[in-house]
């Protein structure tokens, strides 16, 4: 569905999603990088476990919630991807992690 336009000068960075190593362009948001890698689902709803993914891409709908470097409820469309970032599917409601 999503396809990148060629940009031969874009810097490539690496990140992981659910343990899989992926690449993206520096400056991508987490949601844009997932979509560019063919990943359309990034969370499951708390009530029924229904799959959800990026929708509005501007921070209004909260459908792109992911776990980033161990912190849940992060809006992937508002977070700039960084080299080495660890992104995971958010399954259900965010759970508090003991320190």
Helices and strands in order, then pairings?
Elements: E1 12-17, E2 20-25, H1 30-36, E3 43-44, E4 51-52, E5 65-68, E6 71-75, E7 86-91
Parallel strand pairs: 1-7, 3-7
Antiparallel strand pairs: 1-2, 3-4, 5-6, 5-7
In short:
With 99 residues, this protein is mainly beta.
Number of helices: 1
Uncertain runs with pLDDT below 50, 5 residues or more?
none
The amount of beta strand, in percent, is 25-35%
Gyration radius from CA atoms, angstroms: 13 Å
Q: What would the principal axes of the Cα set say about the shape? A: globular
Number-wise, the strands total 7
Largest sheet: 7 strands, mixed
Mean pLDDT: 90
Which structural class do you get from the secondary structure elements?
Answer: mainly beta
Reading the helices and strands in chain order gives EEHEEEEE
Helix content: under 10%
Q: Distance N terminus to C terminus?
A: 41 Å
Structural commentary:
This protein is mainly beta. 7% of the residues lie in helices and 31% in strands. It has one helix and seven strands; from the N terminus they run E-E-H-E-E-E-E-E. Strands 1, 2, 3, 4, 5, 6 and 7 form a seven-stranded mixed β-sheet that branches. Strand 5 (65-68) and strand 6 (71-75) form a beta hairpin. The chain is globular. The N and C termini lie far apart (41 Å).
């Amino acid at each position: 569905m999503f396809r990148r336009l060629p940009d031969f000068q874009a810097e490539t960075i690496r990140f992981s999603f659910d343990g899989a190593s992926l690449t993206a362009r520096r400056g991508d948001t987490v949601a844009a990088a997932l979509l560019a890698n063919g990943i359309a689902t990034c969370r499951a709803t708390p009530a029924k476990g229904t799959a959800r993914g990026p929708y509005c891409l501007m921070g209004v709908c909260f459908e792109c919630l992911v776990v980033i470097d161990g912190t849940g409820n992060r809006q992937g469309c508002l977070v700039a991807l960084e080299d080495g970032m660890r992104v995971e599917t958010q399954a259900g409601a965010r759970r508090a992690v003991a320190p």
